[in-house]
Design a protein that fits this description.
This protein is mainly α. It is built from three helices and two strands; from the N terminus they run βαβαα. Strands 1-2 form a two-stranded parallel sheet. The longest helix is centred in the C-terminal third of the chain and has 26 residues. The radius of gyration is 18 Å and the shape is extended. The model has no long low-confidence stretch (mean pLDDT about 80).
C-alpha cells in the first residue's frame, strides 16, 4: 500500500504562525493593535467598506463573511445554547474540523 500524502508538517517542522490580522472597523482602535502586537507580534490592518456606500468586493473582508457562513451551516452554532464559552469554542473547532475533513476527502477522491 502506498504511503499516504502528508497534509501536516513533518515531525520537527512547524506551521507558520499568522503575522498579520485583518479586522473590521470595530477593532480599529489603538488598544486592540497594542494588544495584538504584545500578545502575538501581529500587525493589524482595518478593512473598511467603500466610503460612498456602494457595494464592492473587498479582498480580505469576504474571508471572514465566508467563514461565518460555513459555521452557520452547523445547526448547533445558529443559536446560543451553551452556558460556557469553552463549549462554544469546542463546537466551533468541531465545525471547522468537519469542513477540513470534507475537503481532504474530496482532495483524496480527485487525486
Amino acid at each position: 500500500m502506498p504511503e499516504p500524502k502528508r497534509f501536516w508538517p513533518r515531525p520537527g517542522r512547524t506551521c507558520r504562525a499568522p503575522e498579520h490580522l485583518w479586522t473590521g472597523v470595530g477593532y480599529n482602535g489603538a488598544p486592540f493593535a497594542e494588544w495584538a502586537e504584545e500578545k502575538g507580534g501581529w500587525t493589524v490592518e482595518v478593512v473598511r467598506k467603500a466610503e460612498d456606500g456602494s457595494f464592492q468586493v473587498l479582498p480580505r473582508r469576504w474571508v471572514v463573511e465566508r467563514t461565518f457562513a460555513w459555521l452557520y451551516k452547523c445547526r448547533r452554532l445558529r443559536s446560543d445554547f451553551e452556558r460556557l464559552i469553552e463549549s462554544v469554542v469546542g463546537f466551533i473547532h468541531a465545525a471547522m474540523l468537519r469542513l477540513v475533513v470534507r475537503r481532504l476527502a474530496l482532495l483524496n477522491e480527485h487525486s
